[in-house]
Amino acid sequence: MAKFKMFLVMVLSSMTRRKARLFITLLAVAIGATIISGMITVYQEVPAQMGRAFRAYGANLLILPTGERDSLPQEEMSKVRKALAGYEIVGATPFLYDTLAVNKQPVIVGGTDFGELQKVSPYWQIEGAYPAEGQREILLGAEFAQQLGVKVGQTVTLSAGEGKRVSNFTISGIVRTGGKEEQLAYVDLARLQQITEHPGVISLAQLSIVADGEKLDAVTGLIAKDAPEVVPQPVKQIAHAEGTVLGKLQALVFLVTIVVLVLTLICVSTTMMAVVTERRKEIGLKKALGADNRDIVLEFLGNGCLLGAFGGVIGAGLGFLFAQSVSLHVFGRGIEFSPPIAIFSLILSVVVTGLASLVPVRIATQVDPAIVLRGE
After folding, report:
1. What is the pLDDT of residues 214-257, one digit of tens each?
2. CB neighbours of residue 340 within 10 Å
3. Distance from C-alpha of 249 to C-alpha of 256, rounded to nearest angstrom
């Protein structure tokens, strides 16, 4: 214990006598640890954050009826949600499609839950507003509205065919998506089920879930197991694009982390070599008084590792703030502090400074007391 205290006193004393170099080295380690800690946190958070960001581009999972059936019981969606209890579901939009007549013009009408639709497909551009729940309102696709020559606020007739009851609906909005949705019309799901006399039935459902690649495949497996009456089908284009972008982002973060590690290593090594050069006479005197190479090695390694520990502690805290700032400004969401990442950053800082001290330590052990003390 006494030897350890003496060793610690020697290391701290040698550090405090050279405050300028101490500050430079500590600053380099702290900056390196900050960027490393921040980048590791970002690397870990990127999949989830990007997964949420990709949800603005629409559903990544379809729920379809099995076999040759053209519909499925709406209650199956509760089984699907139960199967996905461990995943973050952004939204789940049921759809019922049927061909009806709007102002005597045949068109495919989709019945849906507009609250869920806004979560799953936030990219829909609406002129006006979505139909209000319980109201006789209809949402028309831009192409179909142009074909009818109608505008928001006007009234159209809706019927399920000849001899069927005709109802008046107010156009609450016109939708533009750049896709097939502009050729359709949409009403509340319950109202379409009533008009078509298909209560409790849907054609399909669109799910937006925070999962990609292997996780999305695992999701389809869970649904197939717990809800055998439905067929889960990933939207391949979105899933593939998401996986590609995530892979490139993570590779970039990994590359930056490696570059920062190398730069920190070089900076610490250069500073430690300067310290060894300055202390050649001191090292020679210690050797002349009986200190062996092991003592010299331990002192310089202790010096470097202690600097790494201090810098790692500072960097772990600043790294979290850095990652938090990146997440808030890029993704608009905060992140939680991760103790394992902080500990890993601290250990990595100590290891890096230890490795950076190896070359200077080797130089220190090669100091010849006789030559140094003669002033050569």
Report:
1. 777 788 888 888 888 888 888 876 666 666 777 777 788 788 87
2. 9
3. 11
